[in-house]
């Protein structure tokens, strides 16, 4: 936040409200009530409910899968996650997700740029369409891709059972992330910075590289990280089009599915799941760090 | 020398600039003064190349720059809200124009240090804009604009976002700076006091046109229209005539050309006394006329609320 706010700032969040509209001159009591109402806290009951809810829905299942993975000891766990097929699936998942995130960083920024800076007919419709891949059931996404790029492709392109197909599916479902994280930052971006840069003699390219991009970077990175996290766990859109060929197009989530359903090996499934869980955690922490750093000088 | 020739600017249906002709002398400090929406900022942006005029020409030092991109005009532009590069330190902000010109590193460093000394920000090199006050940010923006040694310095309401005290300080400081560096400067403002205080020449703008151009004194003493007169300072309306409050003469007896009025309020402001009067000929709910007289004059008249007086313009001023 900028200093003008601070310099005039009569009422930071912690200072008592500066002269509310109501009658003045009460004791400390009404003020405190006023403060609590403004903070909107719900008290111990609310905190308790939220704790139980999050535990039931998120923490306990995570703990359960971790315990399950270690049912037969760390040796079995290690065997499960270090098997050739598991490692192959994991490496492929990470690489293809990384590629998808990198492509999204570029195209997502471009899409956001066009949506914010250009005026054209149907802009509202395009803007709404961005969220469709996110809202669509992923299995439907997979089917749409097969309809266009499958065996009987109307455009003569058949990518089924290839790594390209996996990448395409991931690009489809992760489209909104970078767009939606860059868009608001771009809207808020001070256009006068660009004009100042121009008046100082910078070419449009220099202005973009030195002025616009550094201000968008945190949003681009966090959008890309989100789309990476989503891609790592993607299942529905991939399972039909990729063919799940081991050592070829098999991603970790599909591998886990096979372990659980076909091989009847829930412990190995849980073990690989824990690895994916760790990857997600790392990405999540990374995003938080990025966001904090992005706010440094803003 | 900046010459603006017959410049028109339309935004859709809105006619922002209507046939502007203006000459700004080299080395001068000129203010474009007008109410909001009068087109003063648009004119400044046309000179900078940030807006392309619908028709007309802009000539800088004899060169037609109408179709030249802003980065090729050699212009320093300062924005109301600073337009600080918030991801860069103060040093990098000021160095920006020199860096894109690929100047040698040591030259850039020396130049930046020198400029920061000139604007009083020496020692702030490593700070970020968010760690500066508004006034400091604007001085940084000025140093940044001056770094490229512009032929013309354009300031768009540069002190508009600052509080009154800082604004007055920076104004005086800007005038001193201008007397030192002598770069042709155009300042946009809606504050008549600021324009009168700082500028050599003032162009008063109204509804996309230039109402009058001249020195501060000329504009104040010989305004060509009621608009210019009322925009440059307080006015009192006596019948058909607009008069400055300090050019009103009060008397307790009827005199030639004087109008009858009743004293509503007498305000003592030290040396000056402000007398609020209701003209006898004024209708219901009319605004009182304010006369400024000296303490000595007021003591001679012994005015108090309810008194009947006669008021007319001081003859010399009429």
What this model shows, in words?
The complex is a heterodimer of chains A (298) and B (318). Chain A has a single domain (71-297), classed as Orthogonal Bundle (MetI-like fold). In chain A, helix 9 (163-188) packs across helix 11. The radius of gyration of chain A is 25 Å and the shape is globular. In chain A, 74% of the residues lie in helices and 0% in strands. Chain A has 298 residues and is mainly alpha-helical. Chain B is built from nine helices and 17 strands. Chain B has helices at 40-48, 90-100, 105-118, 134-147, 164-181, 192-198, 216-221, 226-232, 295-301; strands at 2-11, 14-24, 29-33, 55-60, 63-64, 75-78, 152-156, 184-189, 201-206, 209-214, 236-238, 241-243, 248-251, 259-269, 272-279, 289-294, 308-313. The longest helix of chain B is centred in the middle third of the chain and has 18 residues, at 164-181. The radius of gyration of chain B is 24 Å and the shape is elongated. The mean pLDDT of chain B is 90. Classes of the chains: A mainly alpha (298), B alpha+beta (318).
Briefly summarize what is shown.
Chain A contains 14 helices and no strands.
Task: Quickly count the helices of chain B.
Answer: 9
Q: What is the general shape of chain B? A: elongated
**SSE sequence of chain A, one letter per element:** HHHHHHHHHHHHHH
Q: Supply the helix-strand structural class of chain B.
A: alpha+beta
Write the layout of secondary structure elements.
The complex is a heterodimer of chains A (298) and B (318).
Chain A: H1 3-8, H2 28-39, H3 43-69, H4 73-82, H5 84-117, H6 123-129, H7 132-135, H8 138-149, H9 163-188, H10 191-199, H11 204-233, H12 236-239, H13 252-261, H14 266-294
Chain B: E1 2-11, E2 14-24, E3 29-33, H1 40-48, E4 55-60, E5 63-64, E6 75-78, H2 90-100, H3 105-118, H4 134-147, E7 152-156, H5 164-181, E8 184-189, H6 192-198, E9 201-206, E10 209-214, H7 216-221, H8 226-232, E11 236-238, E12 241-243, E13 248-251, E14 259-269, E15 272-279, E16 289-294, H9 295-301, E17 308-313
């Amino acid at each position: 936040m900028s200093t003008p706010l601070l310099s005039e700032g009569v009422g930071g969040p912690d200072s008592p409200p500066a002269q509310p509209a109501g009658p003045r001159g009460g004791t400390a009591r009404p003020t405190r009530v006023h403060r609590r109402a403004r903070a909107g806290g719900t008290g111990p009951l609310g905190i308790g409910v939220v704790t139980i809810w999050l535990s039931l829905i998120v923490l306990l299942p995570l703990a359960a899968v971790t315990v399950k993975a270690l049912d037969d000891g760390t040796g079995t766990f290690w065997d499960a996650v270090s098997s050739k097929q598991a490692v192959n699936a994991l490496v492929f998942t990470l690489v293809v997700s990384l590629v998808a995130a990198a492509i999204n960083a570029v195209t997502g920024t471009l899409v956001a740029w066009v949506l914010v800076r250009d005026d054209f007919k149907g802009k509202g419709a395009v803007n709404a369409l961005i969220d469709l891949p996110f809202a669509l059931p992923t299995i439907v996404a997979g089917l749409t891709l097969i309809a266009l790029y499958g065996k009987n492709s109307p455009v003569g392109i058949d990518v089924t059972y290839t790594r390209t197909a996996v990448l395409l599916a991931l690009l489809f479902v992760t489209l909104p992330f970078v767009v939606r994280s860059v868009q608001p930052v771009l809207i808020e971006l001070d256009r006068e910075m660009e004009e100042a840069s121009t008046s100082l003699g910078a070419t449009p390219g220099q202005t973009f590289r030195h002025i616009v991009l550094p201000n968008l970077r945190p949003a681009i990175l966090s959008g890309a990280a989100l789309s990476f996290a989503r891609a790592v766990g993607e299942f529905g859109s991939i399972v039909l089009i990729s063919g799940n060929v081991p050592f070829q197009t098999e991603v970790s989530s599909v591998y886990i599915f096979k372990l659980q359903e076909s091989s009847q090996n829930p412990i190995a499934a849980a073990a690989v799941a824990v690895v994916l869980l760790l990857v997600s955690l790392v990405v999540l922490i990374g995003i938080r760090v990025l966001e904090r750093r992005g706010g440094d000088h803003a | 020398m900046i010459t603006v020739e017959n410049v028109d600017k339309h935004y859709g249906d809105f006619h922002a600039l209507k046939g502007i002709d203006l000459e700004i002398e080299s080395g001068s400090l000129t203010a474009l003064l007008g109410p909001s929406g009068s087109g003063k900022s648009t004119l400044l942006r046309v000179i900078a190349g940030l807006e392309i005029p619908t028709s007309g020409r802009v000539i800088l030092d004899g060169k037609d720059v109408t179709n030249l991109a802003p980065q090729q005009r050699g212009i320093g532009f300062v924005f109301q809200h600073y337009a600080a590069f918030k991801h860069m330190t103060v040093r990098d902000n000021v160095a920006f124009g020199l860096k894109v010109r690929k100047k040698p590193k040591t030259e850039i460093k020396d130049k930046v240090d020198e400029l920061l000394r000139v604007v009083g920000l020496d020692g702030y090199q490593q700070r970020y804009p968010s760690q500066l006050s508004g006034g400091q940010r604007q001085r940084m923006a000025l140093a940044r604009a001056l770094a490229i040694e512009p032929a013309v310095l354009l300031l768009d309401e540069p002190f508009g976002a600052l509080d009154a005290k800082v604004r007055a300080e920076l104004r005086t400081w800007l005038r001193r700076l201008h007397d030192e560096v002598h770069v042709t400067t155009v300042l946009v403002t809606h504050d008549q006091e600021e324009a009168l205080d700082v500028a050599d020449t003032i162009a008063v703008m109204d509804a996309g046109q230039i109402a009058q151009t001249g020195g501060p004194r000329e504009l104040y003493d010989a305004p060509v229209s009621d608009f210019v007169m009322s925009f440059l300072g307080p006015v009192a309306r006596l019948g058909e005539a607009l008069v400055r409050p300090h050019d009103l003469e009060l008397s307790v007896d009827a005199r030639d050309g004087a109008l009858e009025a009743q004293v509503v309020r007498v305000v003592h402001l030290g040396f000056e006394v402000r007398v609020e009067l209701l003209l006898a000929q004024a209708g219901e709910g009319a605004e009182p006329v304010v006369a400024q007289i000296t303490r000595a004059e007021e003591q001679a008249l012994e005015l108090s609320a309810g008194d009947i007086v006669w008021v007319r313009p001081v003859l010399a001023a009429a």
